[in-house]
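Q: Could you fold this chain for me?
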Amino acid sequence: MHGNGQSFFAKSNFCTFILIPATGLRIMNHSQLHSKSGGDSLTRRFSHVAARLISDIANPLLVPPLVFFSLGYILSLPATELGWIATVSLVFYCLVPFGITLWLLNTGHIQSLDIPLRKNREKLFRLSIISSTIGSLFMFYLCINQDRILLETALVFLLNPFLGYAINRRFKISIHTASLATAAALLLALYLRMPDLYVSAGLLSMAILFVIIPAMIWARLNLKIHSFLELFGGVLAGMTFALLELGILQLIW
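A: Sure. Below is the predicted structure, expressed as structure tokens.
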């Protein structure tokens, strides 16, 4: 955690929430508290750590398993089935892509896990498409006899990596805000089908839209990873594609 900042863990910002106790110790170091920058420097450090935490805890790789778990819990799935759905989604939408990202980092294909350069994202997109496709096929099998929103969610998470890859070839948008907007759309879709029964889905969707996404926009701007236009583009793309996909499924299914 110390030194010139080029160690594996220093570059692996996704692990910030695991390493935050050490980060906190760095912030509160006595010599830093009495540096010439004084309170302004300390405020900036706290602001940076807060932004890093928000960015990493709401990482796009964590969104699909959290969405599947939330939907399954709201739908009152049996514990065994919920466990299988949560495990499969965690492996194929999160752990495998994260492993791929670490491999790309270690082999020098990317310089940080934030992947700020658009052109460096293409290989990650291609490899993640394979993992998400396998994961979605497993999810189709697990959810075939469950509420259709779970099958629709699996299809959304199957199609979105392809759409993200296509967009990335021409434009850079925030995958962080896009994935959160997709999650909000899926939860909102469940709520709108039966508002009286699925109030919690509606409340969670609103929390994502009006609390978590604004916090993420602030965090990514604070970290200087995205422009506001790229962040807003992510929100627009994530919400639009998810709603279009769900709407088309309603028409043909």
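A (continued): The CA atoms of residues 184 and 205 lie 4 Å apart.
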